[in-house]
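Action item from last meeting closed. Structure (171 res):
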């Protein structure tokens, strides 16, 4: 199988998160998890002062752009290029150019050594996001995407939820 690389996709301004969600839905619907590994809207923490009150917020590092870690082929190119809000890949003409490892490390994406002590079956609590304070058991771990699927009880049924490692804390 071909090697996955990082590509930059240009989007309409303000559509970055919508494009990310739409691509992730398409990945799931078409079972492309092994070809499109990660979709990222890089954020950086910023302190804003409004009316004399300091507030920590996340701002997009590159407004109008989304980073995608994927294996480039006709299927993945078509899926990404035909996502609503995407205007095209960054590169000359219609040929996408992958980012080099040096470019990725200068953005702070490579070399983020993340040590995780989670194992399948561990009980964890969600520490951020929509599922905050939810307790669940880890069903599976995806090292490449840095996510874990936990099982939570919703409406009396067990429901799998995929969350980033950074959103989980071991009990």
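Sequence:
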């Amino acid at each position: 199988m071909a090697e996955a690389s990082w590509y930059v996709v240009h989007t309409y301004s303000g559509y970055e998160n919508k494009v990310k969600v739409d691509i992730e839905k398409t990945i799931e619907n078409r079972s492309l998890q092994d070809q499109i590994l990660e979709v990222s809207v890089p954020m950086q923490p910023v302190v804003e002062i409004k009316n004399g009150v300091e507030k920590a917020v996340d701002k997009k590092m590159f407004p109008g752009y989304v980073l995608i870690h994927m294996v480039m082929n006709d299927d993945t190119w078509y899926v990404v290029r035909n996502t609503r809000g995407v205007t095209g890949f960054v590169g000359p003409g219609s040929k996408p150019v992958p980012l080099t490892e040096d470019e990725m490390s200068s953005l702070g994406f490579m070399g983020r050594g993340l040590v995780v002590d989670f194992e399948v079956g561990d009980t964890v609590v969600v520490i951020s996001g929509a599922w905050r304070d939810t307790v669940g058991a880890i069903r599976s771990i995806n090292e490449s995407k840095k996510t874990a699927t936990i099982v939570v009880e919703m409406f009396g049924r067990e429901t799998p939820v995929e969350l980033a490692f950074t959103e989980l804390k071991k009990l």
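Note appended to the action item: The CA atoms of residues 16 and 66 lie 6 Å apart.
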